[in-house]
Structures are given as structure tokens and as C-alpha cells.
């Protein structure tokens, strides 16, 4: 039995969806063949790590540690994955009837007069929310400085269930109804079922589950 196996999709230059697809397209046909290894032929019991990303997990081993999930934070599959091992272009079944909060984002206030506290406020946001996609080589690392600040502000705002008090940052932030996501960087909207309506800094997290495969 193999306790856990997978490929992260963010948080490092090599942690991306293309590499994850390549990894699973090699792994799953091997499992489906039931050939095992020369020492232990036959079916292999294996746990995929993991189902959903963990945005509050320790990043001591690396920023990729929060991005092992094969599903996004809202239960939607990240990439095609054929559990039959035939490498068909099919997706796993995602979560149904997901409810999101309002289509509003917290972005940088470009009209702010005093930006001396910008770095401190970004650090605050990233202390209580997951900013690992901003790290070098990650999905949002190519943003310009203002967009990186906006990402930090928004991920904190969404983590706080869109509490309006969580989108101020000493006047450096403002609300926007315009989706500021890019092709590579997703500015998320929080799912409604996790709304806690709290004004204190708390980061939400999901429980990692191991997906059991037995061919």
C-alpha cells in the first residue's frame, strides 16, 4: 500500500496543472493495469493526496504544500483526470449547487494618498489568508505590484466572508464589482456555505481527504 501520492498545482515553478496532468496520466494507467512491481505483482492500493487544497496548512516544506488537491476550493475539478487509466479527456464530477457570496472583490485603492503602510497591510493580509499563489514561479507571480497587493487584499476579504471591515487596510483598499482575475491568476469569491461573518483575523481551511483507489 502507498500511503499518499499526488502532484501540487501551485506554490512553486514546477507545481502547476500541466505537470499534474502529466503525473496522473502516467500513474493511473499503471494502477489500472494491476501489474504492481516485480517484488509485489498485482493490484496496488494507493491513496491520492489530496482531494481539496488546504489554505491554512503549514508551508514549512514549501508553498506548494497548500495545493495538493485535485479539486479547487469550491469542489470543482482542476483538470481532466480519468480514473479508468485510459487517459480520456474527462473530468471528475464536481460539487453540485455551490453557492457563492456576492460578485465583489477587494482591490487596491489607486487614489490613496499615503501608501507608506502598503507593505505592512499586505503582510497582515497574507498572515491570515493564503498568498502562496504570489510566490515566485506560482500562478499569480507575474502580476504587477498593484495587482499583487489587490490579490492579497481580496484573499483576506474573501477569507473574512466579505465582511466590509476587511476591505479597508488603512484606506489602501476599496470594493469593486469588476472581476480582476487574469488568465493565470484567479481572484476567488468565497463560497456562501463557509460564511462566518467574523471581524477577527481567522483563516478558513478545508479538511484534506485521501481518495482511495483500488483497481
User: What fraction, in percent, of the residue positions are helical?
Assistant: 10-25%
Lateral arrangement of strands in the main beta sheet = 1-2-5
Distance between the termini: 12 Å
Quickly give the structural class: alpha+beta
Q: Look at the structure and give the mean pLDDT.
A: 90
The total beta strand count reads 5
Q: What is the tally of helical segments? A: 3
Shape: elongated
Parts with pLDDT < 50 across at least 5 consecutive residues: 197-215
Beta strand %: 5-15%
Order of secondary-structure elements: EHEEHHEE
Q: Characterize the main sheet.
A: 3 strands, mixed
Radius of gyration: 19 Å
Summarize the structure in words:
With 215 residues, this protein is of the alpha+beta class. It has helices spanning 17-32, 118-127, 145-159, and strands spanning 2-5, 45-48, 105-108, 173-176, 211-214. Helix 1 (17-32) links the parallel strand 1 (2-5) and strand 2 (45-48). Helix 2 (118-127) packs across helix 3 (145-159). The protein is elongated and about 70 Å long. The two termini are 12 Å apart.
Amino acid at each position: 500500500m502507498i500511503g499518499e501520492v499526488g502532484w501540487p498545482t501551485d506554490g512553486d515553478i514546477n507545481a502547476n496543472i500541466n505537470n499534474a496532468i502529466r503525473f496522473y496520466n502516467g500513474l493511473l494507467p499503471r494502477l489500472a493495469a494491476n501489474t504492481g512491481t516485480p517484488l509485489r505483482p498485482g493490484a496496488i492500493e494507493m491513496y491520492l493526496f489530496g482531494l481539496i487544497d488546504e489554505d491554512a496548512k503549514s508551508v514549512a516544506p514549501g508553498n506548494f504544500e497548500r495545493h495538493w488537491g485535485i479539486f479547487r476550493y469550491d469542489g470543482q475539478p482542476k483538470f481532466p483526470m480519468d480514473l479508468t487509466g485510459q487517459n480520456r479527456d474527462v473530468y471528475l464530477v464536481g460539487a453540485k449547487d455551490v453557492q457563492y457570496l456576492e460578485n465583489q472583490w477587494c482591490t487596491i485603492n489607486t487614489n490613496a494618498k499615503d501608501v507608506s503602510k502598503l507593505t505592512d497591510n499586505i503582510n497582515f493580509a497574507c498572515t491570515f489568508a493564503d498568498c502562496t499563489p504570489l510566490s515566485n514561479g506560482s500562478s499569480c507571480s507575474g502580476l504587477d505590484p498593484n495587482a499583487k497587493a489587490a490579490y492579497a487584499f481580496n484573499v483576506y476579504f474573501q477569507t473574512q466572508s466579505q465582511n466590509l471591515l476587511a476591505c479597508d487596510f488603512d484606506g489602501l483598499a476599496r470594493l469593486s464589482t469588476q472581476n480582476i482575475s487574469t488568465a493565470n491568476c484567479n481572484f476567488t469569491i468565497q463560497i456562501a456555505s463557509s460564511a462566518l461573518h467574523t471581524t477577527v483575523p481567522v483563516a478558513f481551511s478545508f479538511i484534506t481527504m485521501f481518495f482511495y483507489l483500488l483497481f
